[in-house]
């Protein structure tokens, strides 16, 4: 069972590196605690889940104020705010209510728009949430 928890921790770590939210990091650490419990007591499934969840919740609750303070610190620069106003190119078409993919600089982002936008059209970034950007056609600006 410890191997399954280790795989889950690895997947959560990769997803955390893609989103940079810190929430998945705490879940990853909880899964690592479950790995240790599973290694020590392989048949204690309840304790693997319980201790893993407890660690994840405690880390989330107690580090939230620290991460908020870090983000408000002088000199902190969130890369997402730099995206707003930049030009991108649609890689996968965007339909209203569905996500497409837009390349901005060297990075690809999941994107949404209020109107359909086809492949290879130029867009401007309007806003960014954690992993999704909102775009509009570049031509709408002229």
Spell out the blueprint of helices and strands.
Layout (H helix, E strand, L loop, with lengths): L1 H18 L3 H18 L4 H28 L6 H5 L3 E6 L7 E5 L2 E6 L9 E7 L3 E6 L5
Parallel strand pairs: 3-5
Antiparallel strand pairs: 1-2, 1-4, 2-3, 4-5
Could you please describe the fold and organization of this structure?
49% of the residues lie in helices and 21% in strands. The protein contains four helices and five strands, in the order H-H-H-H-E-E-E-E-E. The chain has helices at residues 2-19, 23-40, 45-72, 79-83; strands at 87-92, 100-104, 107-112, 122-128, 132-137. Strands 1-2-3-5-4 form a five-stranded mixed beta barrel. Helix 1 runs antiparallel to helix 2 and helix 2 (23-40) packs antiparallel against helix 3. The longest helix is centred in the middle third of the chain and has 28 residues, at 45-72. The radius of gyration is 20 Å and the shape is elongated. The protein starts with a helix and ends in a 5-residue tail after the last strand.
Summarize the structure.
With 142 residues, the protein is α+β, with helices and mostly antiparallel strands. It has 4 helices and 5 strands; from the N terminus they run ααααβββββ. Strands 1-2-3-5-4 form a 5-stranded mixed β-barrel.
